[in-house]
Amino acid sequence: MEPSSWISICLMQILFGHLIILASKLPLQNDNNSLLLVQFVFRHGDRSPIRLYPNDHYKHQDFNEGLGELTNRGKQRMFKLGRILRDKYRPYLDSMQIKNVHARS
């Protein structure tokens, strides 16, 4: 991939991240609000490499979870994201019906 493509991807991720942070600061509920749809698209947490390079100096490093799996840091990040989302949408959770929830990984 060309360097300019990597720069574009990085800039888009930074912009998208800032938009999410700004949106998370907005108040959700007042007397006239009702929640119709919440849709999240996010990248998985930090993962270990999917394969090792033949001349990799860090070959000896342990990947306890296995190659391509979430690292402990990745698990912590996803857990923290879940807490943030739960706290933000808590007012709506009482009326939520599990049959209306769809999660996909």
Automatic annotation (TrEMBL):
The chain crosses the membrane at residues 6-24. It catalyses: a phosphate monoester + H2O = an alcohol + phosphate. InterPro entries: Acid_Pase_AS (IPR033379), His_PPase_superfam (IPR029033), Histidine_acid_phosphatase (IPR050645). SUPFAM superfamilies: Phosphoglycerate mutase-like. GO terms for molecular function: acid phosphatase activity. Keywords: Hydrolase, Membrane, Transmembrane, Transmembrane helix. This is Lysosomal acid phosphatase-like protein. It comes from Euroglyphus maynei.
